[in-house]
Amino acid sequence: MEIYERYASLFLHSNATFLCERAHAERAAAAHAATKPKALAFASATPPGRPTTTRRRRTSRGPRSRGGATPRRRPRRRRRRRRGSAAGRRARGRRGRARLGAALLRVLRRLGAARDCIGRTRGPDALRHLHAVPARHFETGWVQHHVGKVHFEAADYEAAVRSLRTMRRVEPHRMAGLELLSTALWHLKDDVELCYLARHCVDFDARSPEAWCASGNCLSLQKEHDGAIRCFQRAIAVDPRFAYAYTLCGHEYVANEDFEKAIGMYRHAMRIDERHYNAWYGLGAIYYRQEKYELAEYHFDRALCHNPTSSVLHCYLGMTLHANQKCHDALRHLRRAALMEPKNPQARFQCANVLISLDKYEDALAELRAVSDHAPREASVHFLMGKVCKKLGRLDDAMMHFTFALDLEPKDNNLIKSAIDRLEEPDVSEDEKF
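That's the Cell division cycle 27-like protein sequence above. Prediction below.
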C-alpha cells in the first residue's frame, strides 16, 4: 500500500504541474496579443467567416489540439530507477550467494574426486575429473601438477612435461612437482632444459628437496653418479620425510652397482610411504638382476598394486614370470603392457621370447617384425628373428637376419658367426644368449 500511495501522489503532482504551466502559457499569449501594434494586428487579422483566434507558433511535432493551438512541450524528466524494498535486495543477495556457493561446491567436488582417483591409482578417471573443471580452475598450478603426475605414472613423459611446464608458467614460485619434471626430462634425455631447471631451482629455493632432486637428476644424466648421490643426500638432509629423494638415491647406487646401499635407500622410502611404488620397483629390479626371481615377482606385484597403469611394471613382472616358468601369466602381462604403450618395443620383444618358449614361432615372428618397425637398427631383434626363421625352416631369411645383426653389432661377431656356421645343423638344447 505504501508503494501505491507513493505512485498516486506522484501522478497528482504531475497533473497539477501540467495545468499550471498551461494556464501560465495562455496568460502570456493574451498579454502578448494585447501589446501588439495596430499594423501588425491588422496584417495578422483573419479573414471574415473564420474564428478570430490568435495563431501560435507550433512548438511540438505532435498533432494540433482541437482549439487550433498546441501546448508547449513538457520538459523531459529523468526516469528514476525502480528500486525494490530492502527485503527484496536481501533475497536477491541470498540467491546470488547460493548460486556462487553451488558453483564452488561443484568445482571442489570435481577436485576431490580427482584426488581420490589419484590415491586409488585410477589415472584415466582422475584425468576425466580434472578436465571437467572450468578453464580458469584448470589453468592453475595444483591442477596442472596432478595432471602431470597422472601422465608421469603412466610413463607418458612427453604429456607430463607439457603439463608441468604449464604449472611453472602459471605459478613460477611453485616448487612441488619439479622433481617429477626433472625425472621426466631425464627419461627424455633433454639435458639442456634439465640443466636450466636445476640451476633455476637451486637459485630460487636452495632449502627445498625438489631443487636438489633436480640437480641430482641433471648430474645423473651426465653419468656423474657420485655427484648425483651427494645432491640426493642433500635433499634428504633438507627434508628427511621426502620419500622420492631416497628412491632416486637408490637408483644411483644401483648404477654404481652398490646394491646393499640401494636396498637400504629403497626400504627407507617404503617406511616413509608404503604406497611409494618406485621403491617397490627398485627392490624388484635388484632381485631380478641377482636372479632371485621369487622375491622379484613379489616386489613387482606390490608395485603394480600401487600403480596398475604403468606399462613398465607390467613388462618387468612379465619378464619375471617368464623366468619363473609361468609363461601364460607372463604373456598376459606383456600383452597388456604392449597395449598400454604401443610405442615401447620392449614389451613386444619380451612377448616374442615367451611365444618362442611356447613353440609359437609364427606369432613370435609377427611380434618381432612389429618390433623391427619401431627399432630397425636393433641387432638383438634381427638375431632373434634369424633363430625363429631357422626354426621354421626358412634358411634364406635366417641368413639375411643374421647378416643384418652382424652389420649392426660387430662386437658380438663370434656369437653371430657361430650361428651362421651352424645354420644347416639342428639347434642345440642350450639357450643362446645375446
